[in-house]
Amino acid sequence: MCRHSLNLTGSAIENINNGLEVYASGAGVLDITVILDDNDFNDLSNNLITLGVEQSTVLTAWFTNNIINETDSNDITVPSNGSSPALRPSAAVLIDNNIIIRFNLFGIEANAAGGTASHEATIANNVVNTPGQFSAHGIRAQSGWGIADGTNLFCLKVSSNDVTNLALDESVQLEQFACTTLQLQGFTRDGTSKTGVEASPTANNILNHDTNVRTAGRIVDFKAGTCLTL
Prior knowledge:
The structure is a single chain. With 230 residues, the protein is mainly beta. It has one helix at 194-204, and strands at 2-9, 12-16, 20-24, 30-37, 40-44, 49-54, 57-64, 67-71, 76-81, 90-96, 99-101, 105-113, 118-124, 127-129, 135-143, 153-159, 162-163, 172-176, 181-185, 206-207, 211-213, 223-225. The strands form three sheets. It has an eight-stranded parallel sheet, with no helix packed on it. Strands 2-5-8-11-14-17-20 form a seven-stranded parallel sheet, covered by helices on one side. Strands 3-6-9-12-15-18-21 form a seven-stranded parallel sheet, with helices on one face.
């Protein structure tokens, strides 16, 4: 197993075309640790933070106490993409206590896609507001992307976030494709009911637009779960 780490703390980064991208892929097992804490990101083009894994990579990441001000695309994106049962990437991510403003597309996006990925994400205590002209959702989480033999597992905890001052779009969007598992920590409602699933994040966060569970081409079969705590 190869191990790599990145620790960026107390830095100011501004006026650059791209933010920070850590994207690991390989048939051999790679173990990646990323710590981004107490940084100030300003006026960046394209995705600000992308932490992604493919194939047999293991990602553990902490993104905490940062200020993110204006990007042309997503602010925080954490994808894990698996291509076969033998190559199953996994990600465990804590996104906590960040201030995210003037974003476009999504403020925070996490997904387990590509058929065989495993992802555990805690998104808590963040302020996501004042979106840009081309914003879509404050927080977006997705399990799968339509692969028929997918076995994705996504455990998600979304709590105590302040996702307000959005114009027209949902504060939180959840998407689940067939053949995948999407667990919500603290979930006690009917996981096959769109309105039942939507009520859980809406009750546990401060939102000025409700949660939306997208159903077109997707399924609604959410489960209760206990996500890994970093």
